[in-house]
Amino acid sequence: MTDLLHADAARPAGGPAFRLRVPTEEDAYAWHRVFDDPEVMEFHGGRPAELSVYQEFTARQRRHDAELGFCLWTLLDEAGEVVGFTGAQPWPHPWGPVGEVEIGWRLARPAWGRGYATAAARETLERVRAAGVERVVAMVNARNERSVAVTRRLGMTLQDTAPLPGREHDLAHRFALDLRTV
C-alpha cells in the first residue's frame, strides 16, 4: 500500500490543501453520497449510480493499489471530508485506449472551481511516474469544458475524438501525456 493513506495534507502553491488515500469500504458510501447529483453525473451517464457500483469500484481501486502502486484515490479536503476521487487506473473498458493508464477525477459539486482536480491530478502524475508509468491518457466527454481545462493545465495534448459507445450524441476526447518528458 502506498504512503498516501498516512500522508499529511498537501498544499500546492496557490492551491487547496488536500489528501489522497486508498479508497476504504466506507468510501463507497461517501462516493455514492457526494456523486448523487445530476450535475456531477452529467458526463458520466447522466444519473447517479447505485451503491453497489461504488462498492465494486472502491474494491477494484484497492486491488489496483496493491498490485500497481496507484489507483483512483479518495480525495479529501483540508477538513478530512470526502470531496471525490482523483488518480489513475488501467483503462477499464473494451473500447477506447485499451492497455493504457487513464488519469481521472470526479468531484462533488461544492468542490468545483476550487483547484482540487488540477492539484490532485498533478500529485497523481508524480506518483504514477514514480510507479514506472511512462504515459497516461484522459478520456473526457467533449462537452465537459471543466475537465478539458484540467487536461490543458496538466499539459496533456488532444490525440483524437470518437463517439462514446452507447451515447452516439456524445464525443470523447482522448488526451495524452508522456511522463518521461515532463
Characterization of this structure:
This protein is an alpha+beta fold. It has a single domain, classed as Gcn5-related N-acetyltransferase (GNAT) (Aminopeptidase, 3-Layer(aba) Sandwich). Helices cover 31% and strands 29% of the residues. It has five helices and seven strands; from the N terminus they run βαααβββαβαββ. A four-stranded antiparallel β-sheet has the order 1-2-3-4, with helices on both faces. Strand 2 and strand 3 form a beta hairpin. Helix 1 packs across helix 3. The two termini are 26 Å apart. This is GNAT family N-acetyltransferase. It holds the Pfam family Acetyltransf_3. InterPro entries: Acyl_CoA_acyltransferase, GNAT_dom, N-acetyltransferase.
Q: Identify the overall geometry.
A: globular
Give, in order, the helices and strands. EHHHEEEHEHEE
Radius of gyration: 15 Å
Average pLDDT taken over every residue: 91
Q: Return the domain count.
A: 1
The structure class reads alpha+beta
Q: Main β-sheet: number of strands, strand sense, barrel status?
A: 4 strands, antiparallel
The first-to-last residue Cα distance is 26 Å
Q: Per DSSP, what share of the residues sits in E-state strands of 2 or more residues?
A: 25-35%
